[in-house]
Write a structure and sequence with these properties.
- This protein is an alpha/beta fold and 230 residues long.
- The chain has a domain of 155 residues: Rossmann fold.
- It has seven helices and seven strands; from the N terminus they run αβαβββαβαβααβα.
- Strands 1, 2, 3, 4, 5, 6 and 7 form a seven-stranded mixed sheet that branches.
- The longest helix has 21 residues.
- The radius of gyration is 16 Å and the shape is globular.
- The relative contact order is 0.18.
Length: 230
Amino acid sequence: MEGFQNFNTTNFSPLTLANNTQAVILVTLVLDVSPSISNYAQQMNTAAEEVFLHELKGCHRKNDILVKCITFCENVEHKSGFSPVLSVPDSYFEVRPTGGATALYRAVKEALESTITYREDLENQGIDVRSCVYIITDGEDNQDRNGKDSRDVKALVAKLKSKEAWISTFTINMLGVGQDANFRSACIDMGLNPDKCLDTISSSAKEIRNHMGVVSQSISSSSPNTVVQF
């Protein structure tokens, strides 16, 4: 994984944030683009643009929200660094099926590493931060053959759970699309509590839109959590 500095593609410096806001919301989307998403990619793209981004761009915290998108098949791609939500195009979260496998654990590991590193840098500048990592997949990992990536994710999750200062301001949500994969097992492999962070839906447009709407509204809310949410 490259450092977050290499991914900032907009005319934006986090150094200016301290002068503009008292708190920043970091939103990291981790999106499965393996070929199996072909049946619902169009529905997900429409929901991401019309529901998820619409909510974030229109909420009262819109000037405080920075977004980052990571996609994965057998490869993990960072679309950009953390960028102001108002600066990204409406198609920013658009996915196109590609590749031939699912590197879920590696993608989540890189998402957590990026989010933690960026958050720590902002906090070192005196900026309060809330963080949300939102994972959408329709399959289990089939690339972590020696188990290293899942172990690395589990270690990061354990570190987050033990960081008392972040308990109320760091969330991880996972959306399992379809009924074929054992999403609960994938959560457990990563050290996540599926009863707290996992939702499983069919690939219908209505369910995808509803779930994205709930998560985006939760992100834009100013109400902190009181217990670990993952």
